[in-house]
């Protein structure tokens, strides 16, 4: 256990919310530094702590800076979850739900969020953002390109991954079959929310995924994180 408190650098309207959610779930003491976006981009001050200058960042009790949400979640759970509340039970132990639910399945699902969903939703929301920011006479052209890309491959690819994730929740409250969220849920929740808020994903087509998404956001720790942060609206670029 670290001696001093960790510090979360949180930026409004970003995946910092999921790191704050985990800190609240853990119930530990921490410092919170709130950054506003600067013209939609990262606050310049985030470069003072990490060369990439992105959010979230976690400064550990011993001064080490950790970037990347999945690494932050990994570190926080390893360091502070001594009761194992948010860890995946070992195969064969109580609370473990199937022979194939192991580190390899977890890695596969994490990667689907970080690679497939992230690139699909980034493409969709970037095209939407460019159309939104462009002069009204070029907007229909950009929207036409966006609709063509969506029709030719993008929407089918997204549907493919979301259907798979939905099937992985068969008989499970959270992705690892636990009764509490694990790192997989803290990370995948971000990608699904990115899709819902910024890329027009309709979760009603994926009822198990929708149930899981609502379950995550009905947790007291999620709500406390929303109150402590300085805003969480992933469609902010439409304003
Ligand atoms: N792969 C990083 C993503 C970091 C990142 O790109 N964060 C976004 C907010 S969700 C950001 O800082 N955007 C502002 C910018 O790129 O200017 C992670 O998982 O933490």
Structure commentary:
- Strand 3 (57-59) and strand 4 form a beta hairpin.
- Helices cover 50% and strands 7% of the residues.
- It has helices at residues 16-26, 69-80, 103-133, 139-168, 183-198, 207-217, 220-228, and strands spanning 7-11, 31-35, 57-59, 65-67.
- The chain has a domain at 103-219: Glutathione S-transferase Yfyf (Class Pi), Chain A, domain 2.
- The longest helix has 31 residues, at 103-133.
- The protein has a four-stranded mixed β-sheet with strand order 2-1-3-4.
- The chain contains seven helices and four strands; from the N terminus they run βαβββαααααα.
- Helix 1 packs antiparallel against helix 5 (183-198) and helix 1 (16-26) packs across helix 7.
- It has 239 residues and is of the alpha+beta class.
- The model has no long low-confidence stretch (mean pLDDT 95).
- Glutathione (GSH) is lined by residues 11, 14-15, 41-42, 54-55, 68-69.
Any descriptors?
239 residues, four-stranded mixed β-sheet, alpha+beta, Glutathione S-transferase Yfyf (Class Pi), Chain A, domain 2, binds glutathione
Seen as an oligomer or otherwise, the chain set is single chain
For the record, give the distance between the C-alpha atoms at the N and C termini, rounded to a whole number: 43 Å
Largest sheet: 4 strands, mixed
CATH-assigned fold name of the domain at 103-219: Glutathione S-transferase Yfyf (Class Pi), Chain A, domain 2
The string of secondary-structure elements, in order, is EHEEEHHHHHH
CATH architecture of the domain at 103-219: Up-down Bundle
pLDDT < 50 runs, ≥5 residues: none
Q: Give the overall silhouette.
A: globular
- Bound small-molecule species: glutathione
